[in-house]
C-alpha cells in the first residue's frame, strides 16, 4: 500500500531534480550577488523605485527569452527573434499609432508569419537555425522599409503602461512573473506543452502515438511569435519609439538566458521560471557594469566573461550532482 | 477515466486447458502480406492469425522480418500486398499511427517509445490520451500508470512524476509495457522482447499478468529470442524465416530443439566461395595478431578472443550481444585485457552515417586512409595515389571510375569503396562492422573473395555480421550471447544451423568451448 501513499507525500528533491534546477539556482545566486553589488554602490537600488529602474530594462529581454525557450523546447533555435522584436517596435510606433485596428492586424499577421515559418521548417526539413536567420533579414528589411530611421511615437495606452508606477512593489516584476506563469502553464502543465516537449524529446514516439509533429511545431512557433510581439510592445513602451535594430542583440542573449536558466539545445525541457531568472541575471550585468564605471566600450567583453563564468559554475555544479 | 476497465477476471482460467484450440475468435489476421523496402523484401507473404485469449509466440533470427511484421500488425505501416483484418474488419489502405481500426492493437517496443524528457504521467497521456479526461488528465494518467505498474510489477519503484531519463533501464521497460497496455479496449498486445532488460522476478510477474489478460479474452503476441520463455508462456509458436511464417505449431509438446530446427531448417548457401576450411590451419600455430583476454565491462563478460595472422575471425550471434563492443576494444585497445599488434583499419556498417565522405570523389574516399602511408615528408604523392586507386577500382570493378562523385554510386558500390579504403591501407588488422547489410549478391561475392584473398596474404580480419550465412567465409567464429562468447566454431563446424542453435540456446554453463 505504500505505493498509494507515496504520491501523497511531498516529493523529496531527488538528485535528478536537483541536477535539473541547479543551473537556475546558480543563475539566481549570480543575480543576488549582482543586486547586492548594485546596492553597495548605490543604496537607492533597494527601494521600490530603484528596483523598478534596474529591472525594467530586463523585461523585454525576459519575454523574448521565453519565446526562445518555447522554441528550444521543441529542439529548435530562433536567430531572428531580435530583429522580430525590433520590427514589432516599429509597427507599434507607426501603424499602431496612426490606425490602431490595422496595426493590431499587422501584429496578428506577424504571429501567423511565425507559425508559417514553423510549418516551413517542419515540412521542408530546413534547419531552424538557417530558416530563422533568413527570416531575421526579412524582419530587418520590413522594419527599415516602414521606418528607415529610429523614431515615431508610442500609442497612449502603451506609454501609460510604461509609466505605470504602482506603490509597494516594483512594476517590472508583474510582467516578468505573469509571462513566466503563462508560459509555465502552456509548456509545462498543458497537453500542448507535452506535445511540444515530446517533439523535442522523441519525435518517433510522438508519431507512433498518432500525434502530429507538424501541429506541435506550428503551435510552438505561434506561441513564440506571440511572445515576441509582447516583448516588442514592452520595449516600445519603454523607449517611446520604434527602432528595428534596437533589439538585435536579443537573438543571442535570449539563447544565453535559456541556457543560464537550465534549458538545453537538445530540446525536450521547458524551464520558464529558470528563464525568468536567467534573463534578469543577464539584463542586470549591464546595470552592474555601468554602476561600476566600466568604460562602455569594454562592457560587451566584460558581459561575455560574466556569462561564461556563470555557465562554468553551472557545469561544475552539474558535475558535482551527477 | 476508463483505462482500468480492463477485463479484470482473476487469473483463474486454467492455462493449457484449451491450449491449441482454434475455435476462438481471430483478433488480427494477416493474409499473404508482403512488404518491400527498396530492394529488400522484408515480408514475402505472411499468413498469421492471432486469436482472442491466446499468447502467440513469434520467433525468428536476424532479418527474418519480425519487426516489419509487427509494424504492419500494429498498423504503423501499410503492407504492399495482402490484407490485414482487425476484429473482422479489413484495413487495407488504412494504416499509419492514426488509423482508427488499430486502436485496440497496442505494442510495447523493445527500445521503448517513451519521451525521455517527459514524466511517466505525461508519457501515458501521449499514448493513451483518447481515454483520459481533458481536465485533470495528469492525475488520471498518473493513477492509471501507478495502478497498472503495481499490477504488473509489484515493487517497481516508479512514481508517476518521475522523468523517464531518471529511471533505470528495467524501469523504463516496465513503464513502456504498462503504457502499451493502458487503453480503454485492448484487443491485441504486442510485446517485443519485453524481458530483455527485466530481471527474472519482473519477467515472472509480467507473464503472470499476461496470463490474466488472455484469460480475459485479450490476444498477446510475444516476440522474444528466449525460446524457453516463449515455450513456457505461449499457447502457439509461429516461426518466421526469410519474411514468411514457415511453421505455426501449438506450444504444447514443442521442445526448444524443435523450434531451433524450424528456424534453421535450410542449409547455408555457400555457393561462390572457396571453402573456408581450406584456409583454416590450426589456429594455434599462427602468430597472434590481436587478443582479448577475459575482457569484462561495457557490455562484455569474460570475453576471450584470439586473432591469428592471416586469419578471418567471425563474430556472430543475434544483433547487439557484444560483437560491436569487441570491435570497439580492438579498434581502441586502451585496456590491459586487450593486446593488438600492428596497425588497424575499420569498416563501419552504417555507411551513410560514418562511412562515406559524400562531397568527395571515389578516389579521395578510397585513398583517405592509405594517404599517410603513401605520402612522403607529409606531402601527398598524387601519382602513386592515382595508381593505387586505379588498381583498386579495377580490382573491385567499381562503377563510375575514380573521379565519380561518391553520392552518384549505388549502395553496393559505395560499400566497395569503403571496404577498399580499409584494405588499401597498410593495416595488419581489418575490422568489419557488419558491412554488407543491404548489399547486392554480386558485390558481396566480390567482397568475400577480396577478404579471403587478403587473408591469404597474411592480413587478419575480424568480421561481425548479422547474416549468419556470411560466417561460412570465416576460419573461426565466436558466437556471442548477452556479452559472452557462448561458442567457438572452426572450419567445418561453421554453419548457419550451428550458429542459430548456439545463439538461441539458453546456456547456463559454457558450451563447446574447447
TrEMBL record, chain A:
<feature type="transmembrane region" description="Helical">
    <location>
        <begin position="48"/>
        <end position="67"/>
    </location>
</feature>
<feature type="transmembrane region" description="Helical">
    <location>
        <begin position="167"/>
        <end position="187"/>
    </location>
</feature>
<keyword id="KW-0813">Transport</keyword>
<keyword id="KW-1133">Transmembrane helix</keyword>
<feature type="transmembrane region" description="Helical">
    <location>
        <begin position="79"/>
        <end position="97"/>
    </location>
</feature>
<dbReference type="Pfam" id="PF02653">
    <property type="entry name" value="BPD_transp_2"/>
</dbReference>
<feature type="transmembrane region" description="Helical">
    <location>
        <begin position="244"/>
        <end position="263"/>
    </location>
</feature>
<feature type="transmembrane region" description="Helical">
    <location>
        <begin position="218"/>
        <end position="238"/>
    </location>
</feature>
<feature type="transmembrane region" description="Helical">
    <location>
        <begin position="21"/>
        <end position="42"/>
    </location>
</feature>
<protein>
    <submittedName>
        <fullName>Monosaccharide ABC transporter membrane protein, CUT2 family</fullName>
    </submittedName>
</protein>
<keyword id="KW-0812">Transmembrane</keyword>
<keyword id="KW-0997">Cell inner membrane</keyword>
<dbReference type="GO" id="GO:0022857">
    <property type="term" value="F:transmembrane transporter activity"/>
</dbReference>
<dbReference type="GO" id="GO:0005886">
    <property type="term" value="C:plasma membrane"/>
</dbReference>
<feature type="transmembrane region" description="Helical">
    <location>
        <begin position="298"/>
        <end position="317"/>
    </location>
</feature>
<keyword id="KW-0472">Membrane</keyword>
<feature type="transmembrane region" description="Helical">
    <location>
        <begin position="128"/>
        <end position="147"/>
    </location>
</feature>
<dbReference type="InterPro" id="IPR001851">
    <property type="entry name" value="ABC_transp_permease"/>
</dbReference>
<feature type="transmembrane region" description="Helical">
    <location>
        <begin position="103"/>
        <end position="121"/>
    </location>
</feature>
<keyword id="KW-1003">Cell membrane</keyword>
<feature type="transmembrane region" description="Helical">
    <location>
        <begin position="270"/>
        <end position="292"/>
    </location>
</feature>
UniProtKB/TrEMBL annotation, chain B:
<dbReference type="GO" id="GO:0005524">
    <property type="term" value="F:ATP binding"/>
</dbReference>
<protein>
    <submittedName>
        <fullName>Monosaccharide ABC transporter ATP-binding protein, CUT2 family</fullName>
    </submittedName>
</protein>
<dbReference type="InterPro" id="IPR003439">
    <property type="entry name" value="ABC_transporter-like_ATP-bd"/>
</dbReference>
<dbReference type="Pfam" id="PF00005">
    <property type="entry name" value="ABC_tran"/>
</dbReference>
<feature type="domain" description="ABC transporter">
    <location>
        <begin position="28"/>
        <end position="267"/>
    </location>
</feature>
<feature type="region of interest" description="Disordered">
    <location>
        <begin position="1"/>
        <end position="26"/>
    </location>
</feature>
<feature type="domain" description="ABC transporter">
    <location>
        <begin position="284"/>
        <end position="507"/>
    </location>
</feature>
<keyword id="KW-0677">Repeat</keyword>
<keyword id="KW-0813">Transport</keyword>
<dbReference type="InterPro" id="IPR003593">
    <property type="entry name" value="AAA+_ATPase"/>
</dbReference>
<dbReference type="GO" id="GO:0016887">
    <property type="term" value="F:ATP hydrolysis activity"/>
</dbReference>
<dbReference type="InterPro" id="IPR017871">
    <property type="entry name" value="ABC_transporter-like_CS"/>
</dbReference>
<dbReference type="InterPro" id="IPR027417">
    <property type="entry name" value="P-loop_NTPase"/>
</dbReference>
<keyword id="KW-0067">ATP-binding</keyword>
<keyword id="KW-0547">Nucleotide-binding</keyword>
<dbReference type="InterPro" id="IPR050107">
    <property type="entry name" value="ABC_carbohydrate_import_ATPase"/>
</dbReference>
